[in-house]
Amino acid sequence: MSATPQAQKLFGHAEENNYLKCSSGIKSWLFTLDHKRIGVMYLIGVTFALFLAGVFALILRSELFTGDENFLSEAQYNQMFTLHGAIMVFAFIIPSIPAALGNFVLPMMLGAKDVAFPRLNLCSFYLWMFGTAFLLTAMLTNGLDTGWTFYTPYSITTTTAVIYATMGAFILGFSSIFTGLNFLVTVNTMRPKTMGWFKLPLFIWSLYATSIIQILATPVLGITLLLLIAERVMHIGIFDPAYGGDPVLFQHFFWFYSHPAVYIMILPAMGVISELISVYSHKKIFGYSFIAFSSVAIALLGFLVWGHHMFTSGQSQLVTLVFSAITFSVAIPSAVKVFNWLATLYKGSIKLVTPMCYALSFIFLFGIGGLTGLFLGTLSTDIHLHDTYFVVAHFHFVMVGGTLTALLGGLYHWWPKMFGRMYNDFLGRVGCFLVFVGFNLTFFPQFVMGSRGMPRRYARYDPEFEIFHQASTIGAFILGIGILLAFAVLVHAVFFGRKIGGNPFGAASLEWQSSSPPSFHNFDHKIHMNAPYDFSAMVYDEEMDTYIQRDFVTPETPEVPAPEPTKA
Amino acid sequence: MLNLIGLLAQTESESLVPAAPEYRDGSYWFPEAASSFAKDVDPLFMLIFWVSLVFFAAIVGFMIYFVIKYRDRPGHKVEKSASHNTALEIAWSVLPGFLLIWFFVDGAAGFFNMRVTPGDAEQIQVIARQFNWEFHYPNGDATTELHLVRNRPVEFVMESRDVLHSFFVPAFRQKQDVVPGRYTYTWVKPTKEGIFRLYCTEYCGDSHSLMKTNVHVYNSQEERDQATFYPWEDETPIKNGQRLFNMKCSGCHNNNDVKKTGPGLGGIWGKMETLSDGSTVEVNDNYFRESLLNPGAKLVKGYANQMPSFQGKLNDDQIFWLRAYIKSLTPNAKIEDELNLPASEAREKVDTADGDKPAAE
Amino acid sequence: MSTVEETADSHDEHDDDHHDHGEFIAHHFDSAEQQFDSGKLGIWVFLVTEVLFFSGLFVAYVLYRYHHPEVFVDASQFLDKVLGGINTIVLLFSSLTMAWAVRAAQLGNNNFAGKLILITMICAAAFLGIKAVEYSHKWDLYILPVSYYNYMEGYHPEAESGGIAGTLHISKWLVTLSMLPLLCLTLFSAGAVAMAATGKRLMAQFMLGLAIMMSGYFVGAFAGQTYQNWHEANLEAEEHAGDHGHDGDHAGDSIATGPDSTSERPPQIGVFFSIYYCMTGLHAIHVIAGMAALSWLYFRCLKAHFRPDYFGPVDYVGLYWHLVDLIWIYLFPLLYLIN
What we know:
The complex is a heterotrimer of chains A (568), B (361) and C (339).
Chain A: H1 5-11, H2 26-30, H3 35-63, H4 74-109, H5 118-140, H6 154-157, H7 162-189, H8 202-234, H9 247-281, H10 288-301, H11 317-345, H12 354-377, H13 379-385, H14 389-419, E1 421-422, H15 425-451, H16 466-496, E2 498-499, E3 538-541, E4 546-549
Antiparallel strand pairs in A: 1-2, 3-4
Helix pairs in contact in A: 3-4, 3-5, 3-16, 4-5, 4-7, 4-8, 4-9, 4-14, 5-7, 7-8, 8-9, 8-10, 9-10, 9-11, 9-12, 9-14, 10-11, 11-12, 12-14, 12-15, 14-15, 14-16, 15-16
Chain B: H1 7-11, H2 38-69, H3 86-115, E1 122-129, E2 132-136, E3 142-143, E4 146-149, E5 154-160, E6 165-169, E7 174-178, E8 184-188, E9 194-200, E10 212-218, H4 221-228, H5 237-249, E11 272-274, E12 280-282, H6 285-293, H7 316-328, H8 343-352
Parallel strand pairs in B: 1-5, 4-10
Antiparallel strand pairs in B: 1-2, 2-3, 5-8, 6-7, 6-9, 9-10, 11-12
Helix pairs in contact in B: 2-3, 5-7
Chain C: H1 3-11, H2 32-67, H3 69-76, H4 81-106, H5 110-140, H6 163-167, H7 172-197, H8 201-241, H9 259-263, H10 269-302, H11 312-336
């Protein structure tokens, strides 16, 4: 793209002044307060966590290829699944979309220069580093074999490095709180006066709902983990039955955070999908306000259903009944979103490029993940299915089929914006296909063996489940290759991709009015406030190889540009 | 009396986890239904399954149809359509709600069936510990596998000696956590004769995946009694010890020299063990007894202090029997003659002999 | 980049009067108002997380009290209402000075705001001093979290502690706890002298302030220990007076309890103290964090940073300090005033 005056007016003049180039040296990254750089660092961090925990997943799937011992002892297997879960949940999924993608996109979507508290943002990233370092310390010292749930009293009695791991999760919790706090304040105070609540892109709505959960639920995890540490260090007798404590109380505390945390993981993914579906259908999102409010409804209802993880724990039957009833009510806002996405496709102009492939694959996989939730919310069937592979398959369909798919889709969508270069779309689609096929082959058989009675967290299993486990293991490797390919295509694009213009996909939200990659201050020109889903205003300009606002097609008299950036 | 069922023969096999019974399909999704709860669970599961499938097929069907029909191609343009339709949206928010209410009510009804024990149920006490199960019957018998009578409701009064466990029999569709520090209850009414698998489904530590056993359902009380009855007085101390070992110890200790959560107990008698503080101790009567009653006192090097004390949980006879069995696991240990006599006679001998009886409490 | 804000800091060396517009406005905010609003919303949200952080402990408290009400009544008699009450007053007073400091900062009166903040800091330290007396006294008596709880009727710790601490009737635990504050006091005083000697007036003043704050701890500890000894002596005298009547002992109880009711305490009494130590300990950590934040404000007051259109930090820390105070207002009756 050549920096014609026209292009400069539309996308700013960031050719040589973009956030990647404006300063260099390792310190300019490590001490940056720029939300975009922090987002990129987060992205590198969570990808590292994803690959590490992914390797654990492949190791344990390999061990499960047969029912007897292959190469892991039972204790080693237990450590593998624990570390897989803990690292995936605390170090990867929770920060993945909000802290990596959200950090990059959220202020730009609001037309702001940065988040409200840039230092807190950087602090949040370093807390992530420390927390992850603690988890890794646990892994490298004594290992960890409690399961990511740290259930008492086993977590009090086991000899593995529970204190390191819980400290890690505690610190990661604060990292998450700070991100949430920052986003919430940013959305409230940093958007332009003309941008009302209902002119916000839906990704912002979903991040806002996520922030509420992060702020309200995570502190409870914090105190729970502190109490667990205190219990382990000096037996305070709150959770330890040996001193009159109540192990089920721990489960209540833990799930009071960890169930809403499920929505910390999935809500931003839903927000990403809302963006992708509308951009690549080139059509205004259907039922904007229903989607927006369903995010908030999910966030609020999410606080009232933690007990559905404990139907068999021995809690009172009345409580169980209430939790089941509320659980069903969460199904509705999720379904509403799916229906609205479908209606958005209707009469659109659908481009089957890589991000859209991920979005459609999300609808398929999240559909299964959501519907299988019905079996688990229903009391009598849950008694049978609880703690079996059915549950494992269910939440992987939501967390991997949902969140990871959306993360990949979002990365493919915003990658040209982040790095100014286009990826190989064909290979991107191949990656998406492999992820889709591998994922289904991995997790669908787990539904069957689960309802046939295969308990989760088993290192050795009975012969009748072998065939399912073998399909699952093969699928896991295909999935692994798919994810590897997806990231390889993206990384390749950063160095060798074709340079592209400011708005290659014709999206209408504000971040696409910056240059690709954006300048240090995001927008060093006047931005045109338009509705986030008004695609009719976008037309393709061949000369600049990018979409532009229809109003700008006819040359106008040059306007005085907005104030110059204060810093180069 | 004779040991008719040969429970001992079974436990002498290599692995202390009983072999898995043959898996029998009930339907594609379920194992064979063997309790009264299957009629609550299976049809509801299938109902949700078909409803979900219809929804899923519709969603994916429309999605594929739209993607094909409205794909971006030369000449194709976005057509005008509404950006929202409140009536439609309210309809698809509310209408599925009725189905959900149906599932909820049906599920709750089944759940109450599963949680409310009928008054005429027989009580079986279940003790869960890392990593085995122990079942105590009303007549005083105790076994490591569960033995039930067909069509007789039975209530399980469950306690855990260490961490969380969960009692799960897929064929019965029943599950309940076992929580330390309190009793939990569950019940079933088996409806089919046969052998079924019982799993621990709450992660409980290293050998969690081996904390499984079998459930035997018999047609009559007599058969059950034969299966559970064990003539402690008529068997030798070694055999009694083996039986106790399988109930109380085999979760953490092997009967050969292979390390488990605790050390393997084969071939240790008379050996010098190195303790965690570097000193050594000979494995003899006294050390054996101390290790049972105060396990933390002299830990073998390389093991954590995880074993619960059996103080007050084993009587002197039982300790004597266990000692006899452990001793017999060491090939060249000297086995006293009375250890091969029936337990009742052995006790008399030991009582009259002087130094050999383990010191009384 | 941080440069915009950092240049703002580096300007401070000039100890200036000419605050040109926007010196403390970060580059990404459009106006001072936007910055203030963001900060204010941010601190409120942070306070919400703090409340939820404590809520876990409150839930644990409610559950155990619901299950063992009698244990809680019995156990709370080991807590000294007088010391707890003094601490409540100290904190309430500090809240008052804090609120006043916010007002002074808003008026741009940095000098006065600094003094008020210093008083707040002294109160915070005094609170910790009194808390240390309470803790050490309980530790002497083995009133500890459940697994270490080993209180015995009639046990007199004085008999065991020797040395100067013993002769002065100071708990050896209090001496241990006071080591860190003593170290800080020494360092700050030395720092103040050194700074004054090298002519760095501002830093000398700041160090002096910190030293004065730390001495607040010793005032609190001394007052608390004096009361404790006086109270102990009173009880002993009472005991000797009624010696032939019964052999009940009140080591530390502010309310005499009959020998029968105290001889067999249920094991859950330790759980009360587990909760007590968790709650008050976590609160004390927040007080210490508050002291750090207040020190920072004190420094900025010395530098005369605040003015009517820029006093956000004082306001935010003030809100935090009120929350710390408020939590204590809840803890005091819940733990000390049962019955």
